# Entry
Amino acid sequence: MAPGYARRPPPPHRAPIAPVPPFTCGRVRWAVMIPPRDDSAAPPPGWPVTEAGALAVQDRLRDRVVLDEPGPEPGAPLVAVGVDVAYDDARDLVVAAAVALDAGTLEVLEEATAAGPVAFPYVPGLLAFREVPAVLAALERLTVTPGLVVCDGYGLAHPRRFGLASHLGVLTGLPTIGVAKTPFVFAYDAPGPRRGDSAPLLDGAEEVGRALRTQEGVKPVFVSVGHRVDLDRACAHVLRLAPRYRLPETTRAADSLCRRALAAG
DNA sequence: GCGACAG
DNA sequence: ATCTTGTCGC
# Structure
């Protein structure tokens, strides 16, 4: 692991990943987040168990999304962290992975995983409630400080403008973006055929993200802002992280790791 | 009202 | 997401 990257002192379990104003979830106060419990990836006390409860949490947290920061400068030194999860519903098990890469060289700097019970059923628009607890636990186990978190799914491209990437950003305070493989419910025109070509991802007349061609002749990915990053930079980071394949290396590394961890455990 | 619907 | 055979290509 290359020296020169900022590190947080372990153990991180009692310390917030980043200074974020306290908020409450249900009746429970999360200083920023996740917490202690044991060292599992179980959802914290107060994690919603109903759709109505989850909708209420989204409604309460959505205005905490920060959209007026440009985010990390593409080309500058950056620790880009990919997060993803794999499931075994039969065993009520979810495994999350967080893989930190040097955004310049794509070298793997650090890997972490966390396993726990499935926190929520899959409901379109409420994906964060299923994935976030385990993802937070995996992020906490990294010792490098993420400069950008790349999520598998959406941020602002969400019916209530609060997808997984935005949710994770608000909870951690970290800059986040969403990279999805399918366009969810939004409309777009096919981007040009070359790598780097893009077209707006539209909710009516509102651009909620971008269909971005990362490889020539390959279908685009769908990029949206999560938290503390603008859309131009989000796309620039995705392009740089995907020099060879359709999906960014962050996503590929995290996907691979959580699947291996699920199969192993 | 019914279906579609990130992962 | 996950269930899954073979197949084309580097």
Observations:
- Confidence is low (pLDDT under 50) at residues 1-5, 7-37 of chain A.
- The two ends of chain A are 25 Å apart (CA to CA).
- Residues 85-89, 122, 130 of chain A lie near DNA strand C (CB under 10 Å from a C1').
